[in-house]
Amino acid sequence: MRPEMSRPHGAEDLLRQLQETLDSDPDNPLHHYNIGFFLWKKGESVDDQADQSKQLRERAAEHFLASAKLNPSDGVAFRFLGHYYRTVSVDAQRSAKCYQRAVALDPHDSEAGEALCDLLDGEGKESLEIAVCREASEKSPRAFWAFQRLGYLQVHQRRWSEAIQSLQHAIRGFPACADLWEALGLAYHRLGMFTAAVKSYGRAIELENSRIFALVESGHIQLMLGSFRKGVEQFRCAMELAPHNISAHLGLASGLLGWSKDCIKSGAFGWAADLLQEASEAAKVSTCLSGNLYSAWKLDGDIKIAYAKCYPWGTGRIGYEIDEDLLKSSIISWKKTCYSAGISAKHSYQRALHLAPWQANIYTDIALSLDFIDSLEERNNNDLEIWQLPERMALGGLLLEGVNKDFWVLLGCLASRDALKQHALIRALQLDVSLSSSWAYLGTLYRNLGEKQLACQAFDRARSIDPSLAFPWAGMSASYHDGLCSTNEAFESCLWAVQTLPLAEFQVGLCALAVLSGHLSSPLVIGAIGQAVQRAPYLPESHNLHGLVCESRTDYQSAIVAYQQARCALRMFPNFRSDLQSCFTDVSVNLARSLCKAGHAIDAAQECENLKKEGFLDSKGLQIYAVALWKLGQYNLALTVARKLAENVSTMKEPCAAAALGLICTLLYNISGYDSVVTTIRKFPSEFLQNTRMSLIVCALNALDTNKQLQSLLPTISQTAVSLGIAIEIHSITAINKLITQESPQTVAIDRGVDYLRKALHMYPNSLLIRNHLGLLLLSSGDWMALQKAARCVVIPTGHLHPVKKGFRLPYEIHGAMAVACGCFCSINPKFSFPTCNDGVMHGTRHLHLLQRWLHQEPWNQNARYLLALIVFQKAHEENFPQQLCIISKRLVLDALSTEVFLGDNKLSQSRSLLLLCASEISLQSGDSVGCMHHASNALGLLPTNSDLFFAHLQLCRAYAVQEDYSNLRNEYTKCLQMKTVHPICWILLKYFESRYSLQNNLDIIHTNFQACAARKGSSSTNWSANFELVCAQCYLWDQDYFLAEQALAHACVANMDSCLLLCHGAICMELVRQQAGLQFLSRAVTSLTKAQKCSTMLLPIVSLLLAQAEASLGAKAKWEQNLTLEWFAWPAERRPAELYFQMHLLARQSSTVSNQDSGVGSTQSPERWILRAIHLNPSCLRYWRILHKCYS
Amino acid sequence: MKLAGLKSVENAHDESIWAAAWVPATDSRPALLLTGSLDETVRMWRPDELTPVAPASKGHALGVVSVAAHPSGAVAASSSLDSFIRVFDIDSNASIATLEAPPSEVWSMQFDPKGTILAVAGGGSASVKLWDTSSWQLVCSLPVPRPEGARPDKTGSGKFVLSVAWSPDGKKLACGSMDGTIAVFDVARSKFLHHLDGHYMPVRSMVFSPVDPRVLFTACDDTHIHMYDAEGKSLVGAMSGHTSWVLSVDASLDGAAIATGSSDRTVKLWDLSMRTAVQTMTNHSDQVWSVAFRPPGGTGLRVGRLASVSDDKSISLYDYS
């Protein structure tokens, strides 16, 4: 409608032009408007010349007036008229009217609308303003200015929900207006929609990051929602933007205070103290900025008191020797810091009170701070007649606000008279019957008064009302002393209390309970006592218990330091204890014990000496003294002390006496030997032997003794040994006893032990100890069958590893050893060979996984590494050393070797040499004969000369053989011969070597030696001789001497009816038949092969094929067919050879010519297909092609 | 009229100083300045040099809120936050009596002009307590009635009476409360007379004009100083100029000026004829809790002195002329 004015160069020309247009058509409102607009703009541009500007504007107004008259529906003209009346002729009434008209005509006209609202606002006509905005907003949803204005006004009038709607609408129009977002956030905030508020404030901050209000408010919301970290972040931002903004400082301080309370709750005192320091600085700034804000002072007080209550005692660990003065001064300075923080909290609260004496809660704050200061001053005013100051101040709060239940509870806590306490707490309960804290304090009060039943009830109530309140739990745990609950229950209660509120008193109590209930080494306890030491360094108990906890974790150095600190604390603050001397003795005994355990026997003895001088050496001290002396090598003195201890035994209580007797026995055994201890035990009255410890000692002694001097004492013991664990231990010891035979002290009778343990296991089938022990014995029994039994009887515990009795092996280890042992003679993967072992198929991969799992659980365990290396090596061996496995195995072996080993240990060096041999074998197999020799000679060097060096030499032999260095080979071979080993396998190997490299034709030496060895093997000697014959047969075969080979194998088959041997025999017989040596071999072959077929648990391949051929030669066609079918199934599908397919072709052809109904495997496909498949598998065989040709021709 | 700084003592107390009062001169000694502080002590200072008269007197367990001197100049009283009032002999510093009130029920105090009664603003008890100065017994309690239509206050018994002032003739007593109400009593008849309206925030200090018993000056947290006709129960005038709470007010002996101390850390001298602040002292670095003109008598004669004490632990002395 209206061409926008772009100012031409000649303004005057334009004006003239406009004037001419107007003159030509004076009734056109547009022309009037245009010229008015031009003049108005010109008037604006010459603002500095007021007169001229005014003149121009007046002229413009005339034209606007004309335009408006001519076209009363043109809002823009009215707007300019409004401007004119407002600015030039200052007529608010008219101006408002014009604006109103403009807005009415065009509700989108934000300029007019805003100007109108400003006018109304200036006159204070708020309702009119709202009406205008509402009208505009109702007219058009796109009148965003109206929504904005309306929203602000509604916020101003605190009509939050209406404001939210208006603001949301306005934001659609001005999405980048931070003010709108801020106002929206405020509205949400006031309505309690905190997340929405945080989002809105966040948007405002995003748009304009200098929005202090949004930062502070969203910070407050974050604090309210408990996310102090975020809140503190916001306040810090606000503080940087406006360093003089009090609310930012106060918010920061309160955020840090809340944060630190979280820290205190979780026990991080040092962290909390740091936060509070920062908070205190922020609070200080805010109080400096405005000294008359009582809430700032109160916050300052809160921060100070929190600081005083969490400031941790600096534990500058001083080392083994502690400096008493240093400790003292550090405790005193710690106390001083707390005290001065308390005092300054008191001052801050007083300032707050002085500013606002009508605020009741400040009275109670002062009361609390006074109470805290009193507790630090250890002021114990027992004058009940006078009102104590904290009490008075608590009362002050109550006078102002009598209906506040918390004030009543506080009075109940601070009051010095029991009656008043009770009254106050009951008052609080009258106000709110479910006030758990009041119940809890009532419980404490009753406890102190000795009303245990009432106390218990009160605590119970408190607990059920609010389980997250620490106090009643702690109170319940104290009821242990009254025998109302078990130690475990008490410990659990107290633990809960400590976890909800880490208070030093609770923590000390927790540790005291842990001592009683045996939870000392729990990590929860060590954390708790560490915090207790931080918060109550003046309490000797906390140090002493800290020492006990450290000791139970075998951290003796820390324990020693803690005990010494406890002693210092006792010396420093003796007024805490009435029974000072007994405490002192206890701590000293603890110290001596820790010193002794840490290996400082001299210091321990010195401590005991001191105690003895003072006359406080009790039975515990005597025991420690005896041990310390014994460790120092002063045996006579030790025995004297032990004697003294023995004299006292009769006066001791049951467990102490048992411990003392046990110690005496152990000392005697170590110092004077077996016999004297036996005589001593015989002297003891029998009732002393009834406890578990002594019965174990007697049992063990008896087990060692072949003369059974203590046998008479045993039956009484095992009857009384009620405890299951003890009974099992006794059985285990008895099993060891069975191993030691009277007849041959050198060897152990494993079978007897196994028998005994089997019976024991029948009695206690779920005892891990007996199972392990049995597994161990079976493993070392040397019986082939036993290995599997061992694996079956040992249970792998699920979950964490159970602690196993020292000297016994882990179930894992037994399994691993078993797997290695099995792998030696049993193939474990059917894919690579055909197991003939009658004992069933081992699950090799399972063991591999088991060992890996073990190593994963205990990466530091050398044994696991060793066993894993071995088992992987075996796997590689079985699979004929594929490259991949070789690499893995080599790595594992080298890894196992890389750890430093103490060479003095015979067992370790043996296992190490075994690993070296494995390494050398892998090198050999991967073609590195130099490496092989290197490893083998290393192994030779490692082993002590008296041990079995045979295998190392043999390995060298093999290496030379590969290198074709025959002179050295002969040398090594001779060495091997000279070894005279006792293992039959060695001789078998030597035999093999001899023949393979034609080293020496002296069969007799090897044979006679082998016979001697095999004879020693007892029941398995026939097995060995069968193996030997097999090797002989092999040797004959090399010499092309089939007859002798057949003979040897026939011998072998007689010795051992193993299907493999039978197969070999059958095969050789067939070969002889082929060479036309005579038909008697054919029948022998049939016999052997039939036997082989029957013996083997699984179908062995080749056996049936050979048998089929033999039967065919004998003319038994049916048997031929039957055996061929068997052969088909003997092979795994993927490994069937081409020849088998060929044979099947024969079979198929046979059946097709006969065309019988027998649907065997052969008839499933046509003969042509069979031959095709055979060719497909082996295309190089001309025979198949020829047959195929024949088939098709 | 003008104020001229004479002397200032930094760190006069260990903590904030909250109260100050002049002990009238006696035959043997000039007037002394009495100060009470958060550090729980009361100290006395010689005028002009501002040197301590005696070691600080202890005896309070919490901060000293108010001090008052007997017109005879022999006895003074100090009250602390724990609501104990200690009455002691000026020269020997010996305790004469310890007046115990329920906690939260003691705030500022003033001796009546004749010295027979000690009026104590009763804090949370919403009353003014009158103690007899010979027997040191509580003789009377003047409760402040709730104004008609006032909302029940959440602070328990309703009001917290903060300030108290005797008219120069000793007949009337005014007290100010936290909600801004001012009550006037007829002491002789122990009767409540009326309220003085106009304040809506705590009235922390008030003083009658020494020359005109009808005129009452009040200092209020709303930053204004009001001038009431205490008998005609009308607001005569209001003076504004402080930017924060007015904590203390005192009238000069000639009745021509008043001085005020405020949270905005200033001391202002107001000319009553012009009703404006004629002078602003900014030598304090924290809020000024109390200002006091020296009473007549003793040596030094007609020379006007004004003392002010502040949270910044300092005392300032000014020459008023």
From TrEMBL, chain A:
Q: Which GO terms describe its biological process?
A: RNA catabolic process
Q: Mind listing the UniProt keywords for this protein, alphabetically? A: Repeat, TPR repeat
Mapped TPR repeat ranges:
178-211, 212-245, 436-469
Which GO cellular component terms, listed alphabetically, does the Swiss-Prot or TrEMBL entry include? Ski complex
Q: Which InterPro entries match?
A: Ski3/TTC37, TPR-like_helical_dom_sf, TPR_rpt
* Segments forming a coiled coil: none
Q: Which domain of life is it from?
A: Eukaryota
Cleaved signal peptide residues: none
Q: What is this protein called?
A: Tetratricopeptide repeat protein SKI3
Organism of this sequence: Ensete ventricosum
Automatic annotation (TrEMBL), chain B:
Q: What residue ranges carry the coiled-coil annotation? A: none
Does this entry carry the keyword Repeat? Answer: yes
Q: Does the keyword Nucleus apply?
A: no
What CDD domains does this protein's entry cite? WD40
Cross-referenced Gene3D superfamilies, in alphabetical order? Answer: YVTN repeat-like/Quinoprotein amine dehydrogenase
Q: Where are the WD repeats?
A: 10-45, 57-98, 154-195, 239-280
Task: Please provide the record's keywords in A-Z order.
Answer: Repeat, WD repeat
Q: Which Pfam families match?
A: WD40 (PF00400)
Q: Name one GO cellular component term.
A: Cdc73/Paf1 complex
* Name of the protein described by the UniProt record: Anaphase-promoting complex subunit 4 WD40 domain-containing protein
Q: Which organism is it from?
A: Ensete ventricosum (Abyssinian banana)
Family matches, as InterPro entries: SKI8 (IPR051510), WD40/YVTN_repeat-like_dom_sf (IPR015943), WD40_PAC1 (IPR020472), WD40_repeat_CS (IPR019775), WD40_repeat_dom_sf (IPR036322), WD40_rpt (IPR001680)
